[in-house]
Amino acid sequence: xxxxxxxxxxxxxxxxxxxxxKMLGCSQRHVYRLADAERxxxxxxxxxxxxxxxxxxxxxxxxxCPPCEKGGRK
Length: 74
What we know:
By secondary structure, the protein is α+β, with helices and mostly antiparallel strands. It is built from 3 helices and 3 strands. It has a 3-stranded antiparallel sheet. Helix 1 packs across helix 2. The relative contact order is 0.22.
């Protein structure tokens, strides 16, 4: 059976709120506050599951964490 995402495509990795909070050095609640305030990349919602693209977060951090125009959990 073929997988939907090839192992070589690391940019497709999704992170949950715990991993994002650990990456940013803040609480999980603060991650949601940043997303709601459009100060970080928007999460990807799959049903009730909320996750962030590891590649998008990496780029955002590399750019100095600027506010995002399309952030927030709407």
